[in-house]
Structures are given as structure tokens and as C-alpha cells.
Amino acid sequence: MTALGAALWIFGAGAAATAAVGLTRRNPMVAVVWLMLTFGCIAGLAAAYDAHLVAVLQILVYAGAIMSLFVLAVFLVDARREEMLEAFRGGPARLLAGVAGAVALWRWIGRVRAFPALAPAPAPAGFGSPAAVGRTLFVDYALPFEVLSLLLVVAIVGAVLVAGRPAGGGRGGKPS
Amino acid sequence: MSEPLQSIGLIVAVALFVLGGLAFLTRRSALVALLGVELMANAAGLAFLVFSRLSGDLGGHVFYLFIMAVAAAEAAVGLALIVAYSRLRKTTALDEATTLQG
């Protein structure tokens, strides 16, 4: 087994295992920390597939920024009360969802393994580097990039409006 | 190694997608359900990366960055909604959010 194959196996198994453990924890803070590990493993997979810039951004944005946002939200909603909750809802529906998920996964794995083994050419020099990705982003995808910045502004304004309203207050109250 | 290079990435991607979907459908805590949605988005991005590597086209990487930005916006709005709701009801249990049911 090559070093690349070993890295793929380790990070892939790590991502699936940490996600399975994290998403079944009762305490949301514990779940967030496990999911940080999952996103770290996905960054490792990204690096193994020659997506170097994306791997670094995955750590910075997903495991860093988005997960710290979740940590702050857990602070605000009182994790101790969350922990008293029954972890899952919906009895028979839960079983059905589990069976459907397992069948989907099984069929997908069979289909992927039947896929003809495309031996990918060795990545061209600079594949996935900041320069190459940046050129694609700012030349070929310049308009979607700008539209996306609008989306982010709208999301920030919406988040401040929704969460800033005082408890039990009416409309247009001063943000507390 | 007998497995072709792309198999592991695609299998992990769909495994993470299924896990995230199950968490979203079955967890009571709105916070963990939202975590499941984030994981689903990330799994889709991983599939983009694998196919980008196979085809040698960097568009997959660009789409991964877009997915990341959309996930950040989604997390900001979703967490704001959860925080506002928990202030109102003192809980984030999804099956107790029945105000809009007829």
C-alpha cells in the first residue's frame, strides 16, 4: 500500500468514525468537538486529493470559524438543559431512516466499486495551489464570486436581525 | 492497493452524507441537527474534490469554496434562529416546536 493509500484509509475511516461518535452524543458541546475532528480528517482527505488550498481553508473556515460559532451558540442555549433531552425523536421513523440510510450506503458502495478504475493522471504541476485555484476563481467564476459576497452580507444582516430581538419583545425593538 | 484511488473518497463522502442526514432527521436537539446539515454540505464538497482530481478541472475546488461560504451563511442564520427560539421557549427540542402546526 502506498503512502497515499494509507493516508486515504486513515483519514477516511477517521472522518466516518468521528462523525458517527459525534452525532450520537447527548451534550452538544461534545458533539461539536467531535465534529471538529471530522472536519480535520476531511481536510486530510482534501490534501490527499491534491487540494492543498482547500485543505488549509477547510481547517480555517470549517473547523475554525464555523465550529467556534457553534460553540458560542451552545453557550447561549444552555448546554446543561440540552443534555437532559432525550437524544433522538420519532421511534419507528428513526428505525426506518436508519434502514434506508444503510441500504443507500450499501448500494452506493457497490456502485462505486463497480466503477471502472480510472487511473487518474498524475496531477499537473501546481494543481490545487493558491495561484491556480485563484486564477480559476477570479477569471472563470468572477460573477458567482461577487454574487456570493452579496449572499453573505444578507446572511449577516438577517442573523443580527433575528438574534438581536429582545426576548418576548415586539417588532423593531432595540437589539439587546 | 486493490481499490482505485477515487473509491475511498466517494465512499467516505456518501457515508458522511448519510450520517449527517440521519442526524438531521432523528436528533431532537436543533443544534446537533444543524451540525448534521453542515456535515452533509461538507460531504458533497468532498465528492467535488474527488471528481476534480479525476478530471483535472479546478472548477471543483472553486465550487468547494462556494459550498464553504454558503455553509457559513447557513450556520450564521440557523444559529441565530436557534438562539432566538431558545430564548423564547427555553429549549431547542425540535419536536416541541409545534406552534405552526394546525
Question: Mind explaining what this structure looks like?
Answer:
The complex is a heterodimer of chains A (176) and B (102). Chain A has 176 residues and is an all-alpha fold. Helix content of chain A is 74%, strand content 0%. Chain A has 7 helices and no strands. Chain A has helices at 3-22, 28-48, 52-77, 79-84, 91-114, 130-140, 142-163. In chain A, helix 1 runs antiparallel to helix 2 and helix 2 (28-48) runs antiparallel to helix 3. The radius of gyration of chain A is 21 Å and the shape is globular. The N and C termini of chain A lie far apart (58 Å). Chain B is mainly α. Chain B has 3 helices and no strands. The longest helix of chain B has 31 residues, at 59-89. Chains A and B meet through helix 1, helix 2, helix 3, helix 5 and helix 6 of A and helix 1, helix 2 and helix 3 of B.
Looking at this protein, list some descriptive labels.
A: 176 residues; mainly alpha; 7 helices; 74% helix; B: 102 residues; 3 helices; 0% strand
Portion of residues within helices of chain A: over 70%
Mean pLDDT of chain A: 83
- Percent of residues of chain A in beta strands? under 5%
Distance between the termini of chain B: 57 Å
Shape of chain A: globular
Instruction: Estimate the strand proportion of chain B.
Output: under 5%
Q: SSE order of chain B, as H and E?
A: HHH
Whole-number radius of gyration of chain B?
Answer: 17 Å
Approximate helicity band of chain B: over 70%
Order of helices and strands of chain A: HHHHHHH
Q: What is Rg of chain A?
A: 21 Å
Number of helices of chain A: 7
Taking pLDDT < 50 over at least 5 consecutive residues as the criterion, the unreliable ranges of chain B are none
Residue-averaged pLDDT of chain B: 86
Contiguous uncertain segments of 5+ residues of chain A: none
- Oligomer classification: heterodimer
> Structural class, from secondary structure content of chain B?
mainly alpha
Distance between the termini of chain A: 58 Å
